[in-house]
Design a protein that fits this description.
This protein has 513 residues and is α/β, with parallel strands linked by helices. The chain has 15 helices and 23 strands. It has helices at 36-46, 52-55, 67-74, 102-108, 131-142, 161-173, 190-202, 204-220, 239-244, 252-265, 338-341, 352-358, 375-396, 434-440, 457-474; strands at 2-8, 12-19, 22-30, 58-65, 81-88, 109-116, 148-153, 178-181, 227-230, 236-238, 270-275, 280-286, 289-290, 297-299, 302-304, 312-314, 320-323, 328-333, 403-408, 422-427, 444-452, 483-491, 500-508. The strands form six sheets. It has a six-stranded mixed β-sheet. Strands 11, 12, 13, 16, 19 and 20 form a six-stranded mixed β-sheet that branches. The longest helix is centred in the C-terminal third of the chain and has 22 residues, at 375-396. It is globular and about 75 Å long.
Length: 513
């Protein structure tokens, strides 16, 4: 199956055309300010030698982007959100968006509405849902200029009944509202699930514009293939889903790199170091997919708890600045200004790329401009790189045993051939476009995080598995290719009904002709 993978990073936009596991063509081009013209440039390059008939054989275009994460971090292109929480008389001590950074709270706050209702952990209603209260809230929203609404109900992952009814009432009164239900996004845990729901609603206008622009870029390139966006867990979702659930794309950059590392190396279990122009991201492959974080993940200062990769980043990249004759390295970087600031390009800043060229690790620019670089500085920089990357690997390990490390990214050559605590350092071919390869190789997932009660453990696990299968197939997976990736179960002690929390994830190939 032929497909195109594109990864839009802060510095570069990478693209590959693949047929099965074979890379037919690839390109690394600068990310443009509007993002989309960079995508058009990348698409035009990988399609250069294809006839219209051959272009029609491309089954999918898969894009990973940091656009949505950057919007939250940079506080731009975000809509005001009306937050509806269903849980009174419980769940009223901490209001929505408390504990958020003040600037983000002020920018997004479109009103807070607390409604009676919600459920217990076993699906029993706390109190009857207050339909009249929800209508009053909807009328108030209709009289404002807020059209992005986040609805969160207590224990809605168990039953979304209250959220669905609230949405129906809201849509009746405010038909042009865009709504996010927390039951579609988060796991057990009210505040973090609510936070993710609010962020998702704030991104709705930007997500619609972004997906529409991606589709336009594809159409202008002459392609008729469907568009998919990569998710936080290393799988893809249809463009229409991405427009409605942009928070699921927050960490697609690091996950694309890890999935690409898996394909290029053939290893299912390893530490992955993605060395870019500004930072090095470290993650851990388990069964061929990024290991998920088991704790809260902060996005722009907001605590969330939904599927996100366990990634640690350090300020080490090709543009990292070297000062004081190697005594101070980073954390600042010349970033996308590499071609004007680095010494090998006639600039005035010593960078790790200059180091790499002087030591023969990379070849670009004019080496004569760093001919007089002191060997003592090179030794200090080399030691710092080894120590920094070694410490980073240690943070990702779960035992003292040596592990293999796969190095990818445009700065992969910076990694030494040996690191403490590492069994082997693998530098793969096409490492510079591993992120685009990962996007192109993405599969489809189905996940369940649910509490079952009055069922045996085997019955609960089977019910969760069947539900996860249904969700994966609904998302576009080929049922015949589904396989189990993660499964966890934990009893909730001292509660009636023998409740068991089950989290299960399946993945499968895209069901494309």
């Amino acid at each position: 199956m032929r497909r195109i993978g594109i990864d839009v990073g802060g510095t570069n936009t990478d693209a590959v055309l693949m047929d099965g596991d074979k890379i037919l063509s690839s390109i690394k081009t600068s990310t443009t300010e509007d993002v989309f013209s960079g995508i058009r440039t990348a698409l035009n390059h990988v399609l250069t030698d294809l006839s219209p008939a051959e272009q029609d054989k491309i089954h999918a275009v898969m894009i990973g982007t940091t656009h949505f994460t950057n919007a939250v971090v940079e506080r731009r292109s975000l809509a005001r959100v009306a937050s509806v929480r269903i849980g009174l008389p419980a769940a009223s001590t901490i209001l929505p968006m408390q504990g958020w950074p003040e600037d983000l709270h002020a920018q997004l706050d479109g009103g807070c509405y607390l409604i009676r209702g919600g459920h217990e952990f076993d699906g029993r209603p706390i109190v009857p849902f207050d339909r009249d209260g929800m209508r009053e809230a909807a009328l108030t929203i209709s009289q404002s200029d807020v059209r992005s609404v986040a609805i969160t109900s207590v224990f809605s992952p168990i039953t979304a009944e209250c959220e669905l009814e609230a949405e129906a009432i809201l849509k009746e009164i405010v038909p042009d509202a865009t709504v996010t239900l927390s039951s579609d996004l988060g796991r057990i845990g009210l505040l973090e699930r609510e936070n993710a729901t609010i962020l998702n609603s704030a991104l709705h206008p930007l997500a619609r514009e972004t997906v529409a622009a991606f589709k336009k870029a594809i159409a202008e390139s002459g392609l008729k293939a469907p568009l998919f966006l990569t998710q936080n867990d290393g799988t893809v979702m249809q463009a229409e889903q991405a427009a409605h659930y942009p928070v699921r794309c927050f960490a697609s950059g690091p996950t694309n790199s890890m999935r690409g590392a898996r394909m290029l190396s053939g290893l299912d279990d390893a530490v992955v170091l993605d060395i870019g122009g500004t930072t090095t991201d470290a993650g851990f492959l388990q069964n061929g997919f990024p290991r998920e974080a088991n704790s809260k993940v902060d996005i722009g200062g907001v605590a969330t708890f939904f599927p996100m990769p366990d990634v640690v980043a350090v300020a080490l990249g090709g543009g990292t600045v070297i000062r004081e004759e190697g005594a101070k390295i980073g954390p600042d970087s010349v970033g996308y200004r590499m071609n004007e600031k680095a010494l090998v390009f006639g600039g005035d800043t010593l960078t790790l790329s200059d180091f790499a060229i002087k030591t023969g690790l990379m070849t670009f620019g004019d080496p004569q401009k760093i001919a007089d670089l002191d060997a003592a500085i090179l030794d200090k920089v080399s030691a710092w790189i080894g120590c920094t990357l070694g410490d980073l690997v240690d943070q990702m390990k779960t035992s003292a045993a040596d592990v293999p490390v796969i190095v990818v990214g445009g700065g992969a050559a910076l990694a030494p051939d040996h690191l403490d605590g590492v069994s082997t350092v693998i530098k793969v071919e096409n490492a510079g476009v591993a992120n685009a390869v990962g996007a192109a190789m993405a599969q489809v997932s189905g996940e369940v995080d649910k509490v079952y009660y009055d069922l045996s453990r085997d019955q609960a696990l089977e019910a969760a598995r069947l539900l996860a299968e249904d969700r994966a197939i609904e998302a576009g997976a080929d049922a015949a290719t589904l396989k189990l990736i993660d499964i966890e179960d934990a009893p909730l002690s001292y509660m009636p009904g023998n409740p068991l929390r089950v989290r299960i994830r399946l993945v499968g190939d895209l069901g494309l002709a």
